[in-house]
Design a protein that fits this description.
The complex is a heterodimer of chains A (450) and B (101). Chain A has 450 residues and is of the alpha+beta class. Chain A contains twelve helices and 18 strands. In chain A, helix 7 crosses helix 8, helix 8 packs across helix 9 and helix 11 packs antiparallel against helix 12. The model of chain A has no long low-confidence stretch (mean pLDDT 96). Chain B has 101 residues and is α+β, with helices and mostly antiparallel strands. Chain B has a single domain, classed as Alpha-Beta Plaits. Chain B contains three helices and four strands, in the order ββααββα. The longest helix of chain B is centred in the middle third of the chain and has 7 residues. Chain B starts with 7 loop residues before the first strand and ends in a 6-residue tail after the last helix. The mean pLDDT of chain B is 96. Classes of the chains: A alpha+beta (450), B alpha+beta (101). The interface between A and B is large, with 56 and 44 residues.
Chain lengths: 450, 101
């Protein structure tokens, strides 16, 4: 039975460069997929593109591709990645440039576009999933990006045109893995169960080392070995839809029933309805079997007919967050942090500043959960005060006034014995989601050859 | 005193302003007991106002897991939250402090 070996070379925008190098060298792969795009990354990439039209793709693109491209071509390992972010065309050009500089011949690079629907989004004016209001209520001038989640199909089409490297923008994460599986095994676009199984594999793979021991160890309660030597996962996908999750031999971490059980539910709501552009997958009957050390067999995923809409992430200028921090240590540190935080808010109220949300955290004491959440009261040795304010104005004078007040109280005018104060002002580009009709999104493929 | 951490492990993820907290029970024989204690309502109350919306529980007996989907739990979601932990991944460690017996 034919088996495909696919690796996840990255699970987030800034993931380790070394993962790709190790996998290409030792993974005996058919495909390597780099998933590098979070919800907000495109909006941020787009702001880079607005400043320089040659940019807008993942900042690590060259660093990831340069050390592996030659060997990948020699070994016939195909590369798929959403590192194109807001600019797959320029990203593909950059990859071409790298290939040429290394004297690689007969290499086909595909750029997948069409996810960018900013021109149409106000016309469609869909309802936001978060609040039920129309997208237009964000304000035309505030909207900076709108990207529909493409599915596996355009990547499959690129592979069918013999692309060695496929660079995309916004594509649903599991679809990056579904594409090579569906292409190699010749799935039809309505093979729902098969697509459900491939989506299950994609979902387990998409966060890379999250399934091999990253984001997992809790010393004393849930130990793993070799956190300093993790490997990303490799999926051995069989023609019949069963698959094995494994990793590089000799690496740290583990592939086990417990790591797979955590990852299968990561960012999943109803496990019987995991909606992607390709299929509505059902993970509710998935089970795992440890067939060997670091080898887990996954069975039981199914699928049903895809929906007629595509999720679209709309980036918009939301507000400004001003955050000030300062540390206190020793006897009374919590009280000193408290009085400083309270005084900061009191002063700003006196000046009637347009603050729409405020949060005073005492890090080491109550910053993640409230004091009343914790069953036992523990007096910390030291704490860090964090004052965070949301301001919904673009008036720089007001922003600077508030920033100055926070800087002043954490840097000079607060409680005794402070140290290490810091201030950060950030314009927030936030994301709202909406469903738009599938047929308004038209994916395109642009091929270049070296 | 025993806590959920003695019986289970957990992972929390985000989608927009919704957090999902998965609880996976280590031993099959404890799954029913944990299921009876950790109702959707119990989880919502336990976080003392941090989860503002509805909590819905999904059961996955084949992997001894419960998945709690918590609406309006991330102060607006990762892209705009004022919180330190914008993703709410620490919900997983929070739920493991749940007292069991």
């Amino acid at each position: 039975m034919k088996t495909l070996r696919i690796a996840a070379g990255a699970g987030f925008a800034d993931d380790r460069i070394q993962y790709g190098i190790d996998l290409v060298n030792y993974g005996e792969l058919d495909y390597i997929v780099f998933e590098c795009l979070a919800e907000r990354t495109i909006a941020e990439a787009l702001t880079a593109k607005l400043k320089n039209p040659m940019l807008g793709y993942n900042k690590w693109l060259e660093y990831r591709i340069e050390p592996i491209i030659k060997k990948a071509k020699e070994k016939n390992i195909k590369i798929i990645s959403n590192m194109g972010a807001a600019n797959p065309i320029e990203a593909a050009k950059k990859v071409k440039e790298i290939a040429e500089s290394q004297g690689i011949a007969n290499l086909k690079i595909a750029a997948v576009t069409g996810d960018d629907v900013i021109e149409k989004i106000l016309e469609i004016n869909p309802v936001m999933m978060e609040n039920g209001k129309r997208i237009s209520e964000l304000g035309k001038d505030n909207i900076v990006s709108a990207n529909a989640y493409l599915g596996a199909l355009p990547i499959i089409n690129a592979l069918a045109q013999n692309a060695d490297i496929v660079i995309t923008g916004r594509v649903a994460d599991p679809s990056l893995f579904v594409a090579p599986i569906a292409y190699e095994f010749g799935y039809k676009s309505d093979d729902w169960d098969k697509l459900g199984k491939a989506t299950c594999a994609g979902h387990l793979m998409e966060c890379a080392a999250y399934v091999t021991g990253a984001f997992f160890t809790d010393p004393g309660a849930k130990d793993i070995d070799g956190l300093d030597n993790l490997s990303p996962p490799i999926c051995e996908f069989s023609e019949n839809g069963d698959f094995i999750m494994t990793k590089l031999p000799g690496s740290g971490g583990e592939i086990s029933v417990r790591t797979c059980s955590e990852q299968i539910l990561y960012e999943v709501h109803d496990p019987s309805e995991y909606i992607t552009p390709d299929v509505v997958a059902d993970f509710s009957n998935v089970s795992f079997e440890q067939v060997d050390k670091d080898r887990v067999k996954v069975i039981g995923a199914t699928g049903k007919s895809k929906t007629d809409t595509l999720k679209t992430a709309v980036g918009y200028r939301d507000s400004t967050l001003i955050v000030a921090e300062v540390s206190y240590a020793g006897f009374g540190c919590v009280e000193r942090a408290k009085i400083t935080g309270e005084s900061a808010l009191k002063r700003l109220k006196r000046f009637n500043m347009p603050i729409t949300e405020e949060k005073v955290d005492i890090i080491g004491y109550n910053s993640i959960f409230s004091e009343e959440f914790y069953p036992e009261k523990v007096i910390p040795n030291e704490v860090r005060l964090r004052i965070a304010l949301r301001i919904e104005t673009k008036d720089e004078k007001i922003l600077y006034f508030i920033a100055n007040e926070l800087r002043a109280i954490t840097g000079h005018n607060g409680a005794a014995y402070y140290g290490g104060s810091d201030l950060n002002i950030k314009e927030i580009i936030a994301i709202k989601s909406a469903l738009i009709p599938r047929d308004v999104v038209i994916p395109k493929i642009q091929l270049t050859e070296v | 005193m025993k806590y959920l951490r003695d019986y289970a492990h957990s992972r929390a993820g985000d989608k927009g302003n919704t957090s999902n907290i998965a609880v996976i029970v280590f031993e099959k024989e404890n799954y029913e007991m944990i299921k009876n204690i950790l109702t959707a309502e119990a989880v919502k109350d336990y976080f003392k106002g941090k989860i503002k919306g509805e909590v819905k529980r999904y059961e996955l007996p084949k992997i001894n897991a419960l998945n709690f989907v918590c609406q309006d739990a991330l102060s607006g979601g990762v892209t705009r939250s004022i919180n330190i932990d914008k993703h709410g991944k620490t919900y997983a460690s929070g739920i493991l402090m749940y007292p069991i017996e």
